[in-house]
Design goal:
Blueprint (H helix, E strand, L loop, with lengths): L1 H48 L5 H9 L3 E7 L4 E6 L5 E5 L3 H13 L5 E5 L3 H28 L27 H15 L1 H6 L7 E5 L6 H12 L3 E5 H4 L6 H16 L2 E6 L2 H4 L7 H19 L6 E7 L17 E4 L5 H12 L10 H7 L5 H17 L7 H15 L8 H19 L7 E5 L9 E4 L10 H22 L7 H16 L17 H5 L5 H26 L1 H14 L1 E3 H6 L4
Helix pairs in contact: 1-4, 5-7, 9-11, 12-13, 12-14, 14-15, 16-17, 16-21, 17-18, 17-20, 18-20, 20-21
The structure holds adenosine-5'-diphosphate and zinc ion (ZN).
Zinc ion (ZN) binds next to helix 16.
Length: 604
């Protein structure tokens, strides 16, 4: 093991020496190109001069009715002019496009026969001039980047991550996810002893798709596989493949796999694969570019056989968006869902990430795990980091429970983004909005009790209502989802009811509610009218089999759910207006209400 590491180091030294030579070569070649280009461009420029027409001369020609056509591109100041007695087009730089267009318009209206051609702005048409003006800078930049890269000083992780180095991450660093790890062990084994599998004639896995929300540890587990198998980890994010210039994405894919073949056996990790692998539906520019990139990826994956031990892991949060071609056998034919951690998982994640932190005696990780249902691993890690910062700010010896609770709030409320200045009017609005959420959920059987309400601005939020966290649930019933909608719309309902006006403060609530309602109809088949059908991620032609205006019907059902919930929130608040007023008043006075104080309002 240690010997191997040493060998690697020697190899690296050798590489550095060779890199020096290559660098000098590249510099020389680049210099030659630069000189060549400058000469060429200068020549071209002079050629061009013969084809330009001074603006004053152009006006003169227009007045003499000697102009056949003028072509302008939106956003550009160059006009292409065709004179009546000449074959070739001339170009003119227009000092003031607006007044020039006005002039042309008037001339045309006066009966002058000038053909006006207005072209929409396109990157391609501007490309030549862009290239000419930026070429020298671009070449210099490219040289610098090359220089940096070769010396290993390039921005690490931008294109390739951990390429030369092997990752130190092991399965032990991944908390929870026991079954998933078990499944991954097979891949590790395959990377270590591929011949064992090929001898048996087994078709080895090529691609594994990891489905899950951001921050659930998909990258971490991919790294751990590489770490366990002791193979290099090459990674790239799907969004990096999407480029303005056609073909670049595809060439990046090619390079990525070139590299992988050199380093095999290895792991290739593509994050956000939906950015390149989303369904090929339309033919717009970006889509076509995506297709090229996607096609290249498919070609690469089909290309390597069992003799090359490369495993491609890809992560996405939106499996329904993926092009079906990616999922065919021999490509990403294995799919593993990475769920948000359950109670036990959260506790383990908290333990792992607090290992190198000083925790006070009073810290109870179990109760923090209980309070953070639905949190991802990344969020939990973030909470512990925040807690360490808070503890430092509070001049605590070590991280106390109160620091962690503060951090939990920071992270949860930080997710709700409500930007607002804080006048007295806003304060009242916030108080009623939050009281609205709290009172409504109190009367909804499936909703958990309120833990804290506050109208102290926190982060970008004006106020918040925190609920006691629910025990982990695998299934959520329709009733529960309906009541969740009511609780979410309780804020807006209170604003409407009390102030007879509504604010932007509910935008996040509305966003969440709309998403839930949409999922109820299109994903969970909870609409009585439409039945248990999955409408999500269907191609237009697939949707057609459900009838002509299925889109309208889905919209109707979503609206129905939202409206029903909103009306129920209104009537609950009307019925319990005394509680709403009392709690809002208390909030205006003390800005904060805790669980006990809240419960007291409902004792009779
Ligand atoms: P994803 O790729 O799913 O967006 P990451 O793997 O990048 O998520 O996770 C971000 C960070 O969150 C990780 O670096 C790790 O610190 C933490 N994390 C997430 N899940 C876990 C887990 N199961 N165990 C330990 N740490 C985790
Ligand atoms: Zn709200």
């Amino acid at each position: 093991m240690s010997k191997e590491r040493k060998n690697n180091k020697d190899k690296n030294k050798e590489k550095k020496g060779r890199n020096g030579l290559i660098l000098i070569l590249v510099l020389l070649v680049a210099l030659a190109i630069l000189i060549g280009l400058t000469v060429y461009l200068m020549k071209n420029q002079t050629n061009k001069d013969e084809n330009t027409l001074a603006y004053t001369d152009l006006i003169h020609e227009i007045n003499n009715q000697n102009v056949e056509s003028v072509e302008m591109t939106t956003g550009s100041t160059t006009a292409k002019v065709k004179l009546k007695n000449e074959e070739e087009e001339k170009t003119t730089i227009v000092p003031n496009v607006e007044s020039f267009m006005d002039l042309l318009q008037t001339k045309v209206e006066e009966g002058n026969e000038i053909e006006l051609i207005q072209k929409p702005r396109s990157i391609i048409s501007q490309l030549p001039s862009l290239i000419i003006s930026f070429l020298p800078t671009a070449i210099m930049l490219a040289l610098f980047i090359m220089l940096f890269k070769m010396q290993g000083l390039g921005e690490k992780g931008k294109v390739y991550d951990d390429t030369e180095r092997k990752t130190k991450v092991r399965f032990d660093d991944v908390a929870g996810l026991e079954e998933e790890k078990q499944e991954m062990m097979e891949i590790v084994d395959f990377l270590k002893r591929p011949e064992k599998y090929t001898k048996m004639g087994a078709r080895v896995p090529k691609g594994v798709l990891l489905y899950g929300k951001p921050g659930t540890g998909k990258t971490l587990i991919a790294k751990a596989i590489a770490g366990e198998a002791d193979v290099p980890f090459i990674s790239m994010s799907g969004s990096e493949f999407i480029e303005m210039f056609a073909g670049l994405g595809a060439s990046r894919v090619r390079k990525l796999f070139e590299k992988a073949r050199k380093l095999a056996p290895c792991i290739v990790f593509i994050d956000e694969i939906d950015a390149i692998g989303s369904r090929r539906t339309s033919n717009s520019g970006a889509e076509t570019e995506n297709n090229q990139t996607l096609n290249q990826l498919l070609v690469e994956m089909d290309g390597f056989g069992s003799e090359e031990t490369i495993i491609v892991l890809a992560a996405t949060n939106r499996p329904e968006m993926l092009d079906k071609a990616l999922l065919r056998p021999g490509r990403f034919d294995r799919r593993i869902t990475i769920p948000a951690p359950d109670l036990k998982g959260r506790l383990e994640i908290l333990k792992i990430h607090s290992k190198d932190k000083k925790l006070a005696e009073d810290v109870n990780l179990e109760s923090i795990a209980e309070d953070t249902a639905g949190f991802t691993g990344a969020e939990l890690e973030n909470i512990l980091n925040e807690a360490a910062i808070t503890a430092t700010k509070n001049k605590h010896e070590d991280i106390e429970n109160e620091d962690i609770e503060e951090a939990v709030k920071k992270v949860t409320v930080g997710l709700e983004k409500r930007e607002r200045k804080y006048s007295d009017k806003d304060k009242k609005l916030t108080a009623y909005h939050e009281a609205g959420h709290a009172v409504v959920s109190r009367y909804l059987p499936t909703q958990t009790n309120v833990k804290e309400i506050s109208i102290i601005p926190r982060g970008v939020a004006g106020g918040y209502t925190m609920y006691k966290s629910d025990e982990d649930k695998y299934y959520i019933s329709k009733t529960e989802m309906q009541e969740k909608l009511v609780a979410l719309l309780g804020g807006r309902a209170a604003e409407k009811l009390v102030l007879n006006d509504i604010s932007t403060g509910a935008s996040n609530d509305i966003e969440v509610a709309t998403e839930i309602a949409r999922d109820m109809v299109t994903k969970y088949g909870m609409s009585d009218k439409l039945g248990p059908i999955d409408f999500q991620g269907k191609e237009p032609y697939e949707m057609q089999m459900f009838g002509e205006n299925i889109g309208d019907k889905i919209g109707e059902e979503v609206k129905e759910l939202i409206n029903a919930a909103y009306n129920r929130a209104i009537s609950l608040l009307q019925e319990h207006r005394d509680k709403l007023d009392a709690i809002a008043t208390e909030l205006l006075q003390h800005e904060k209400i805790n669980e006990e104080e809240f419960d007291r309002f409902f004792e009779e």
